[in-house]
């Protein structure tokens, strides 16, 4: 395994062969009867100032991967390097500083804000805990951050229920940004919002990225949103990355049948395109009992014998150095 | 397939008398669903689209809700005049509903077979054995493999897509004339979403039923609906045939919505947005409810004070906006010039 200790080549986050398994226990003695391989050998890296999009359907392991990276969930094996720090081996003190440098914006702006805390407390809590700032300094920084996300300082003493979904998500963004992190993990930040509000939040995140030089790990299931937002895109299926490439490349030349399926099922706001879309049959198999060989083969229109027997390697394909695919047939 | 009107909703208004005040959830909504066609009701959360659907089923929780005015002609009867007993003959039998959340709308303590058979027994006077055999057939019909075994399963043993298929099997089990699908695919993954919509299309072709599709997803509407009504803050803002609405939206809200949906192949640094927030039914703005967010008439005195009604501005194009081409009468124009324009 290559040691990626210097962050000077522009790499902020490097994940290699990350595995997160959950033990399945049964019976009186809680014996381990199997493992759910939620994340099964995932590798990617994110450059400073870039956005990596992690795309896939529910249960594909995208959220688990993100949570493992900041050690909210223990990893089974692999390595995570963040700005020179070996995250999976970090001690308590290092972890504490890590959580100042990596923050999260959650999907659901309703359940991710404590209803008993005021907006000022929600946004300011991490400042008090992490930076031990005085009350007046906290207030100052909270006000400034709220204004940056399109709220005003009058909102400080209000409670989350007084806000609409879009405004709550702005509070969530403010909470993630108040520590001035280097990496922000956005876990489906707009999928719970109304259409007219989604684009407001996406524009806001983009503006903040430019202003603060933020790096994003962006988790989503909507390829159209990801195309707007991300520089590099990794498509996950059943715990594995099946395709990874730069935005232009993956949308111009999607290679993996699953990526193609995901792209074809996005409904277009265009009545002319009716009937030009084919649904992929079948469902995502259970991670407890994944199929042999390539995990996509039961749903794949191209599947052959070898696909059923052996997992394809994640290799460079398509003639472009940064385009990687795990597929026997492309 | 003839094109008679199956359901005509006329001037429907639904109010909720809440502790915080009166919420006029639906105001003066009118539309018609043709036989065998799909009618889509589109809008953001709180616009009144689901309440409209519940009113058709007469399922608005009362109190606090109340249908305060309107007529709903289904075939030859006004739904609002029926007794509760008559209504039970229609509900699930002639009009069936598919809900958004297949996890919570199936009963967790009965097998899916029991739940489908219940509707069949109730409405079709069949004995248990026949009803059970029918439910196996229904499960096969909605594309559930190994139906003979799965009919004995409980909802928790199935995936989200499977459960939605079970919901659809229940809904079509009595061959209804109208299916109301309230955000049928919102809770599902994208690849499963397409499967479910295909299934609904196929069943519609087979049975010739009409579908009232309630959704916030304009992509789904563009691909599936014949006619569309866009709702905003309790009223219909625009109503037309799907093709003409997507080609040439007349209401600034529809225009804004269409522009703000991220599309594949989008190039540019920023998405178009509609500024501001969706208004809360307890505190609707005066005049046109869209005026605080409107790029066209936001500063216009008349838009701020006088609410435009829904009317046919062009042939087949109903819209509620003072600025839509063909909307104003000559008299209104003169009144505007003299009274509001400075």
Total beta-strand segments of chain A: 12
Q: What value does the average pLDDT of chain B take?
A: 89
Helix-strand pattern of chain A, N to C? EEEHEEHEHHHEHEHEEHHHEE
CATH homologous superfamily heading of the domain at 11-237 in chain A: P-loop containing nucleotide triphosphate hydrolases
Structural class of chain A: alpha/beta
- Which range does the strand content of chain A fall in? 15-25%
Order of strands side by side in the largest beta sheet of chain A? Answer: 6-7-8-3-9-10-12-11
| Share of helical residues of chain A | 25-40%
Helix share, percent of chain B: 25-40%
- Spans of chain B of at least 5 consecutive residues whose pLDDT stays below 50 are none
Low-confidence stretches of chain A: 1-7
Examine the coordinates and then state which fold CATH places here, giving the name of the CATH topology of the domain at 11-237 in chain A.
Rossmann fold
Instruction: Give the overall shape of chain A.
Output: globular
CATH architecture verdict of the domain at 11-237 in chain A: 3-Layer(aba) Sandwich
- Helix segment count of chain A? 10
Radius of gyration of chain A: 21 Å
Count of runs of 4 or more consecutive helical residues of chain B: 13
Number of strands of chain B: 12
Query: Biggest interface pair, residues each?
Result: A-B, 42 and 46 residues
Kindly describe this structure.
The complex is a heterodimer of chains A (330) and B (342). Chain A is an alpha/beta fold and 330 residues long. Chain A has a domain of 227 residues: Rossmann fold (3-Layer(aba) Sandwich), CATH 3.40.50.300. Chain A is built from 10 helices and 12 strands. An 8-stranded mixed sheet of chain A has the order 6-7-8-3-9-10-12-11, with helices on both faces. A 4-stranded antiparallel sheet of chain A has the order 2-1-4-5. In chain A, helix 4 crosses helix 5. The two termini of chain A are 27 Å apart. Chain B has an 8-stranded mixed sheet, sandwiched between helices. Chain B is globular, with a radius of gyration of 22 Å. In chain B, helix 4 packs across helix 5 and helix 5 packs across helix 7. Chain B is an alpha/beta fold. The chains are: A alpha/beta (330), B alpha/beta (342). Chains A and B meet through helix 5, helix 6, helix 7 and helix 9 of A and helix 7, helix 8, helix 9, helix 10 and helix 11 of B.
